[in-house]
Amino acid sequence: MKRKRAGVTDYSRRLRLVKSGKPRLVVRPSGKGILAQIVEYSQNGDHIIKTVTDRTLKSKGYEVRGNNISVSYLVGFTLANEIKDSGIEEVVLDAGRRNIVKGGRISAVVMGYVEGGGKVPCDKSIFPKEERIMGQHLQNKSAAETMSQVRKITAPAAEKKTKRGKKNA
User: Fold this and answer.
1) Among 23, 79, 132, 135, which lies 20 to 30 A Cα-Cα from 71?
2) Is residue 168 part of a domain?
3) Which domain holds residue 123?
4) What is the pLDDT of residue 164?
């Protein structure tokens, strides 16, 4: 119980998540970046299915900088797009010992994951506002770059949504 004494793991919360039987969307923000993983429980240890970080976005050629809500949204969106073919339908959010703040980085990852096509049981009122996702709140020159990258990455998904809407109409 060393991890419990050190305040690293909340075992009662982890037990509830594991008992759900669903894979977990593990989100861990830090001072320098953000990490999002899809993790399945195994008796031998958790099995990580996919990991996306802010550095993963850079390696894919996206020019994003910083540790902000826009980058967090893109991490969640990219993760959802990368696991579409894996057969995972719904995940539960695992924020660890962090509190989920309305409009914060963890909720931005969840919003990106949901808008990317994933399913997470959550209240949509925690999602950040659209202008914050687009980086309009940023004061430095990376705001324009962030906005263009968000539009570039999310444009194909937006087109698919409008095409589906026309087919159903």
Assistant:
1) 23
2) no
3) 2-159
4) 47
Tokens standing for residue 162? 């409008």
- Percentage, residues of the chain above pLDDT 90: 24
Q: Is the dihedral of CA 137, 140, 144, 148 positive or negative?
A: negative
What angle is formed at CA 48 by the lines to CA 46 and CA 49, rounded to 5 degrees?
135
In a domain, 167, yes or no: no
Decide if 93 is inside a domain.
yes
- Domain CATH code at residue 27: 3.30.420.100
CB 26 within 8 A of CB 9: no
Cα separation of the two ends of the chain = 56
Domain count, the chain: 1
Cα dihedral 110, 112, 114, 116 sign: negative
pLDDT value at 166 more than 50: no
Kindly list the distances between the CA atom of residue 146 and the CA atoms of 8, 33, 64, 165, in Å, as whole numbers in the listed order: 33, 15, 6, 28
Q: Which whole number is the average pLDDT over 22-27?
A: 90
> Is residue 122 a part of any domain in this protein?
yes
58-102 pLDDT, tens digit each: 888 887 777 888 889 999 999 999 998 888 889 988 887 777 888
